[in-house]
Amino acid sequence: SSPGARARQRLEVWKAEREAMEGECTFSPNTISSSRSFQVVRAGMTARTPEKVDSARSARNRSQLEPSFSPATNPVPARMRSAKAYLQQSVFRRLSQPV
């Protein structure tokens, strides 16, 4: 059989599998209301008012001056010697080494 015939056959099998799967699915969300609310939110996000431009600019300036997020982590117990030794290395060195 030709490559085109095999491709058509695979497509037919795929369509049949998809139809069988869709027949099993009973979930049918109503996306009309979420579509409307998305449009409202998007319009508010993309509006270029002077207040929003100033707010974005000051937020950018603050982020350059203030440190970024610093997560709170648990201390490594003394019994975990290998982990302690690993963490004593520079984070850049640890992440750049091949595994």
Q: Strand percentage, roughly?
A: under 5%
CA-CA gap between termini: 47 Å
Rounded to an integer in angstroms, the radius of gyration calculated over CA atoms is 28 Å
Shape: flat
H/E order of the elements?
Answer: HHHHH
Unreliable residue stretches? none
Q: Mean pLDDT, nearest integer?
A: 78
Report the strand count.
0
Largest sheet: none
Structural class: mainly alpha
Contiguous helical run count: 5
Fraction of residues in helices? 55-70%
Could you list some keywords that capture this structure?
single chain, 99 residues, mainly alpha, 5 helices, 68% helix
What does this structure look like?
The protein has helices spanning 3-24, 32-46, 50-65, 81-88, 91-96. With 99 residues, it is mostly helical. It starts with a helix and ends with a helix. The mean pLDDT is 78.
List the helices and strands and how they pair.
Blueprint: H1 3-24, H2 32-46, H3 50-65, H4 81-88, H5 91-96
In brief:
With 99 residues, this protein is mostly helical. The chain has helices spanning 3-24, 32-46, 50-65, 81-88, 91-96.
